[in-house]
Amino acid sequence: MLLRRAIKIEEDRKQYIQSIISTIYTTAVQTADTTNCTFYKHVLNYANKDDNYNNNIAEIIERLMALFPDCNVTFATHIQDRNGIWHEESTITEGLKPFLTPYRKEMITIDWT
Q: Are 43 and 83 within 8 A, CB to CB?
């Protein structure tokens, strides 16, 4: 019985990951085909951020990198400044810190420049 439950949990996890990857892939390809943008950002909001997502982010990124081999695929926290511009947290300088708001978002970025 425990083995059957473990198999079901793993099947659900794989289906969950495939669903996320399919959504990101479809939207990124559509963005590339229909706009002049050279990147797509998939924003994680509180409605779709859960433990499943957090526990599987490494696999999600790895699989997206396989689907987009010539692209830069990253996962990072972004912070908004007072002008509404989002900055990747790791690139924020001391001079920018006074102009930041408390708003944060985690994003997967696919950049094909």
A: no
Q: What is the pLDDT of residues 51-82, one digit of tens each?
A: 666 778 899 999 999 999 999 999 999 999 99
If pLDDT is split at 50, 70 and 90, which confidence band does 90 have?
Answer: very high
Q: Where are the domains of the chain?
A: 2-111
Residue 77 CA to chain centroid, in angstroms?
9
Name residue, tokens 């559509």. 30
Closest CA to 103 of 45, 42, 51: 45
CA distance linking residue 38 with residue 105, whole number of Å: 20
Q: Of how many residues is the chain composed?
A: 113
Query: What is the DSSP secondary-structure string of 52-85?
Result: HHHHHHHHHHHHHHHHSTTSEEEEEEEEEETTS-
